[in-house]
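// run 5 | inverse folding | seed 20
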């Protein structure tokens, strides 16, 4: 098959990624339908940029999206990558074999300047999504306030400023969209959860 495609491992079905954006989910409206209870109605998008394809988790499922076993928010795919939507496994094919960084920043220079405290808030926001465990929703304002030992009102003020800085429009899943943007830009990195021993010392 010419061009990029996704092969569903359970069924062997092959789906060509013809459109600029291909949606993946369990819902009837999804371009690639995966009949698996761990897949949400609208789970992820596959976006074509020239010869490249990147997968974007839409943050609407507790089970998340993984590439080669690692939880992702957005990631460029390489030939042979295994993409898991929940527990449904697919394999990417028809992609150019180039030495590119899978974590390539697709919009370099798009990150706004951040204060130290704003970076702390973003790190706390994204910590659940960057753990090695199954993807969970980003931290709530209350969770962030507890982690940083500040008031919830202060965290909400920081989040409002961050939504403006990253141009996250109002609507549902605003925290998730902010977290996805921050992870995609490489502003926060995965961190080991077992930091309690270090903190205690």
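// decoded
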């Amino acid at each position: 098959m010419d061009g990029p495609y996704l092969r569903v491992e359970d069924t062997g079905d092959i789906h060509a990624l013809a459109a600029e954006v291909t949606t993946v989910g369990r819902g009837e409206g999804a371009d690639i339908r995966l009949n698996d209870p761990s897949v949400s109605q609208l789970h992820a998008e596959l976006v074509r940029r020239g010869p490249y394809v990147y997968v974007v988790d839409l943050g609407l499922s507790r089970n998340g999206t993984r590439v080669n076993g690692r939880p992702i928010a957005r990631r460029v795919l390489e030939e042979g990558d295994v993409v898991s939507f929940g527990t449904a496994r697919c394999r990417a094919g028809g992609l150019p074999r180039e030495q590119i960084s899978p974590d390539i920043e697709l919009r370099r220079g798009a990150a706004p300047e951040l204060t130290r405290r704003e970076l702390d808030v973003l790190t706390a926001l994204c910590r659940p999504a960057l753990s090695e465990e199954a993807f969970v929703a980003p931290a709530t304002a209350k969770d962030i306030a507890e982690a940083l030992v500040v008031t919830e009102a202060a965290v909400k003020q920081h989040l409002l400023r961050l939504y403006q800085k990253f141009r996250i429009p109002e609507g549902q899943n605003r925290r998730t969209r902010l977290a996805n943007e921050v992870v995609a830009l490489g502003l926060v990195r995965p961190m080991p959860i077992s930091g309690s021993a270090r903190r205690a010392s």
